[in-house]
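note to self: dont lose this again. the chain is below, predicted strucutre after it. 550 aa total, dont forget to put it in the shared folder this time
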Amino acid sequence: MNIPLTPVRFLRYAEQQFPAKTAVVCGEQRFTYEEFAQRASRLAGALCDAGISRGDRVAFLSLNCHRLLEAYYGVLDAGAVLLPLNIRLAPSELAHILNDSGAKALFLQQEFIPLVDSFRKSVPSVQHFFLLDCAPPEPWLSSHNYENMLAPATAHQPDIMQFDENSLAELFYTSGTSANPKGVMLTHRNIYLHALSVGITFRTQADAVQLHTIPLFHANGWGVAHSVTLVGGRHVMLARFTCGEVFRLIERERVDSLSLVPVMATALVNSPDREKYDLSSVRWISIGGAAPSPTLIRQMEQAFGCECYAGYGLTETAPVLSTAKPKPGTQLEGERRFRAQARTGYAIPGVELRVVDHNGEDVLRDGKTMGEIVARGDGVMEGYWQQTAETEHAMRGGWFHTGDMATIDENGSILIVDRMKDIIVSGGENISSLEVEQAILAHPGVYEAAVVPIPDDKWGEVPKAVVIAKPGSNLTETQLLEFCRSQIAHYKCPRSVEFVENLPKTATGKVLKKNLRQGYGTDLHVPTESKGRGGTHREWLEQKDSTKQE
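---
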């Protein structure tokens, strides 16, 4: 008898084995695993009472909080599909996602009432608007808010054998930086096996205390909603990222692990308040969403006294694919170690990764030859919602094509060179914007940096650096260009530097290079065909792009 693989089993197990253990800390509220499981089950019952049927999409517009974590299990117990929404999207983008998915219900926090009110009439499929955190003040909202729904509801816990592990469990939409957002379909089986792989990779144990720094509306919450639950660890919710709140929660809850995007890590290492707090409980920090520099890895280890390394994944892969966590027996010291831990890394259990040329053939494992990362694994999506052609293209040859250009060495360690669309071709030479950014970020006066191409009459295009300087650094363009030339080949260095106060970012802090390219009139500028390692630049750009974890 095969028992269906569904993440619902994780919370059922934790409730049985750790009923009195603290499961969730959200503000001043604390919930045991028994309370967490019962609230999720009552949410399932309330959804059934509201007419939510098997396969219906239930959307949440919420910051990180215990209610959204409960939805990760309660919505599935109701037989429905969880659809977390990015809180930073524009009204038209949210309306597009709700219409495209055909969502039947939308839960929202009070602060998003004006936002939802601005587009609610344009989303006819949404029959219910439920408020999460207060009494409903608007007539178009349901008369019962979240807590009022749960209080009288009968717990609904269907037998595990009633679940179809290949049915849709979660629907996450890509960022839409290249086109309209696409719905990524993750099945019960995808999520279950991905959580096991993540738990094994990071050795998640029953005493784990994980701080939810990554929004739960983003890329399956990087798997933490499931991997921590399955061992009975503690979830510590962070509604909005501020350095002070991160430090406070680490000290108060004795947090031992957290995941960050580079902009978060940069803020933490540069915060003058860090030394006021006891951060000694932290054992490891993983950085993903964008490539961290070796400098940032070193700074994080020095600041927190813990192990720090990069990770990689995409919305379409549930999301984690690889880690740069040192392998047992690895003996690297100093800057070599930091460079290794800043790499894209090696595949986690349950994942196969290759780097291929434009013909789909493996490139040389020499750490130099460039190709595209393709993936196959338990967490790879079922496909794009109602986009058969896009799915077939992304999954051609039985492998998911990431759109990330990389090299691979003899040990199977991958290093992302750039996104296809972000590679700069100057005078026939391929220049990695990531490599240039990491050289710039090594300067002690730089806080953040992004490199994009700008048109050039002689070379076709050349790199331009857009930089945020650290307060009081008095850094000049000449100084930074000279520093760059001491780090990397001259032809790779920016021809100009623009200092700015901020950079356009996604909800998780990844720089929106598309916005920068458009600002300089260079969006997807493609020069004349030029040969690069592993194929021509034009051949790579003509392949369809996919959205990386952001």
